[in-house]
Amino acid sequence: TWGASLSPMRVAVALFDGVTALDAVGPYEVLQRLPGTTVHFVGHRVGEVRTDNGFLGLNVDVSFDSLTDPEIVLVPGGIGTRSLVHDETILDWIRETHSSSQYTTSVCTGSLLLGAAGLLDGLEATTHFAALPLLSKYGAKPTGRRVVQEGKIVTAAGVSSGIDMALRLAELLTDATTAKALQLMIE
Questions:
Q1: Catalytic: 108?
Q2: Which of 14, 13, 80, 21 is nearest to 55 (CA)?
Q3: Which has the closest alpha carbon to 128: 112, 140, 150?
Q4: Which residues, in sequence order, are bridge partners of residue 47?
Q5: CB neighbours (10 Å) of residue 183?
Q6: Which are the contacts of 90, defined by CB distance < 8 A and separation ≥ 6?
Q7: What are the CA-CA distances from residue 187 to residues 47, 88, 181 (Å)?
Q8: Beta bridge partner(s), residue 14
Q9: pLDDT (tens digit, 9 = 90+) per residue, 117-149?
Q10: Paired sense of beta strands 47-50 and 57-60, if any
């Protein structure tokens, strides 16, 4: 488990044009409250990306090539994932960070990027219900469960399930009492 006596934990949340805001911000609200944790928003370049509705901007503070060894990797979903399944920059970053991460996670269609990076072959995984059939294209075994853990890979279904995934991750990193306290704090 993770605690204040350990070295700082870095969470890398991937951002891209067309991201669904709650996929990134929901887990952020949970994970940034863990003791000794810093959340970094990473992307192709530092600066603003627009969410899937085009009205909200989120800020990338670190480029993919500047943060290659976070303890936690989080890949959110959104309409932007459809083209990113062919983007070797983000796929290489996912592969590289996964090789040393403690946990690699996704929310909604972010799991399609984990699959396109080759991480889900033969594993159960979940995503937004409308995208479940696409997971098998990447070798995953689609399931409609809300949160799925396969070793150090944790996938979450549709948008709001990202909060559930982050609470589960908080429990894995600390303990059930801490996760329940975080749930109460964000409530």
A1: yes
A2: 21
A3: 112
A4: 60
A5: 16
A6: 14, 16, 44, 64, 84, 113
A7: 30, 38, 10
A8: 42
A9: 999 999 999 999 999 999 999 999 999 999 999
A10: antiparallel
